[in-house]
Design a protein that fits this description.
The longest helix is centred in the last third of the chain and has 53 residues. The C terminus is likely disordered. α2 runs antiparallel to α3 and α6 runs antiparallel to α8. The protein is mostly helical. The chain starts with a helix and ends in a 14-residue tail after the last helix. It is built from 9 helices and no strands. It folds into 2 domains: 82 residues, no CATH class; 156 residues, no CATH class.
């Protein structure tokens, strides 16, 4: 994800450079001078204006690419577009994603405020890991949100146990062997459905606790970034921070894969319902 995000950000920065006010003025002025003042000197050619404009335009693009504030703004915009909290209908999960995005922004600002050097470069690499972390948090919140709003699943959780009890009573009263066999087959199918529902509920409960835990871990990482910036932690502490981020990303990925096995990888289609508390 990280390399793909970097490529997207790079393209977005280039696009931003071409649409900057300075860029528009440079292009417009070059064209106007070439048309209205094509030969201000005897040795001048009209296309010199366009060449000069192209040089200035190239400088604008290069400075935009190298400008850290521009890069931060573009990456922040991309992450918020990809991980839009408004797409999550359940309020508590929407708030968790928003909190994670705020932490990520603060971490980026903390690293940007550090003096240029190897440690700063190392921490910038860690912010890429934080972007992966945010992606997993968002995916987890989306799945929890989908489960929360899945009326069919919740209906089955209430009806299947009652249906099994009813079928067991019917089995006790039934004397026809053919009918008994059919009831037994239905009970087996219902029990299998119940087992899957129980497993799904367990996974979702685990995922809910993990989401809360990982937001707390992200807040801890933010404070560690600040300590490194203020030189209250060493380079070895920074390396441990890298390992901690990678571990959190892996844990989230593991629970997502586990959820996918029992619920499926995709959230159900949006029904147009309003956000819930």
């Amino acid at each position: 994800m990280t390399s793909e995000l970097e490529r997207t950000a790079y393209k977005a920065i280039i696009g931003y450079a071409f649409f900057r006010l300075e860029s528009a003025l440079t292009i417009s002025l070059s064209i106007l001078l070439a048309f209205f003042l094509p030969k201000p000197f005897p040795w001048w050619h009209w296309w010199y204006w366009l060449a000069i404009g192209a040089v200035f335009e190239a400088l604008i693009v290069v400075t935009s690419i190298r400008d850290e504030r521009t890069a931060q703004r573009v990456v922040r915009s991309i992450l918020r577009e990809r991980h839009d909290p408004r797409a999550i209908r359940t309020k508590r999960y929407r708030e968790k994603v928003e909190q994670a995005l705020v932490y990520r922004d603060r971490i980026q600002e903390t690293v940007a405020a550090m003096p240029v050097g190897l440690l700063r470069d190392h921490l910038y690499e860690d912010t890429a890991g934080v972007a992966d972390w945010i992606g997993r948090i968002y995916a987890l919140a989306r799945r929890l949100d989908a489960y929360e709003r899945d009326e069919l699943i919740h209906r089955d959780m209430g009806q299947v146990p009652a249906s099994i009890r009813s079928l067991e009573k019917a089995l006790q009263a039934e004397r026809d062997e053919t009918v008994r066999l059919q009831i037994l087959a239905t009970i087996r199918a219902k029990r299998e459905q119940q087992a899957n529902l129980d497993m799904l509920q367990k996974r979702m409960e685990e995922a809910g606790f993990l989401l809360e835990e990982t937001i707390t871990a992200l807040g801890t990482a933010y404070s560690q970034f600040q300590l490194v910036r203020d030189r209250k932690q060493s380079a070895s502490d920074a390396r441990r921070l890298t390992g901690s981020i990678q571990e959190q990303v892996k844990r989230l990925q593991d629970i997502l894969e586990s959820m996918d096995r029992v619920y499926g990888p995709q959230a159900p289609p949006d029904t147009g319902t309003q956000p819930t508390a």
